[in-house]
Design goal:
single chain, Rossmann fold, Flavoprotein-like_sf, NAD(P)H dehydrogenase (quinone), Flavodoxin/NO_synth
Length: 203
């Protein structure tokens, strides 16, 4: 039976979504792994999103909390809001109380990826503060550390991401994920999928 990895994200302007697609490509490289993309529900109205200049949502399916237990592992993605996960993703996690009560997600591995507006905007604080969500569910946090190789030590170019997971900088919205940021995202998908497969095989 395939190891199911759910890549669950929220993206306002598409930066997190681009990372998500690359993460899926990486996970799909692992034999015996079935990766699937999901979006969490939007909490803002179409009118507000329009005023913000946000593009129309993609056709990636919207997930509900009751679908989470189907997965063997997760890679959660979200933009930062003042150093923490966006409210849309937090609202989704707030709706998982019944899963917490039944410990349906306990023992499942999970990683994170993120987007921030600037270099000091939360590339580490965003995942660090989000770990509480995993802890209360009893999930196993899987960081990438420095397993992505030399690109993790790039000093000449602006680079998103950290040992916590893949990342990018959105800036004013015009900046898009760089080739290096996408490479790290691909690695994260492959890396976590491999760990999920090993864990499932040892059940």
């Amino acid at each position: 039976m395939a190891t199911k990895v759910y890549i669950v994200y929220y993206s306002t302007y598409g930066h997190v979504e681009k990372l998500a697609h690359e993460i899926k490509k990486g996970a799909d490289c692992v034999e015996g792994v079935e990766a699937k993309l999901w979006q969490v529900p939007e909490t803002l109205s179409a009118e507000i999103l329009g005023k913000m200049g946000a593009p129309q949502k993609s056709d990636v399916p919207i997930i509900t909390p009751h679908e989470l237990p189907e997965a063997d592992a997760f890679i959660f993605g979200f933009p930062t809001r003042f150093g923490m996960m966006a409210a849309q993703f937090k609202a989704f996690m707030d709706a998982t109380g019944s899963l917490w009560g039944a410990q349906k997600l306990a023992g499942k591995p999970a990683g994170m990826f993120f987007s921030t507006g600037s270099q000091g905007g939360g590339q580490e604080t965003t995942p660090l503060t989000a770990i509480t969500q995993l802890v209360h569910h009893g999930m196993i946090f899987v960081p990438i550390g420095y397993t992505a190789g030399a690109g993790m030590f790039e000093m000449e170019k602006v680079k998103g991401g950290s040992p916590y997971g893949a990342g990018t900088f959105a800036g004013d919205g015009s900046r898009q994920p760089t080739e290096l940021e996408l490479q790290i995202a691909f690695h994260q998908g492959k890396y976590i999928a491999g760990i999920a497969k090993k864990l499932k095989g040892s059940d």
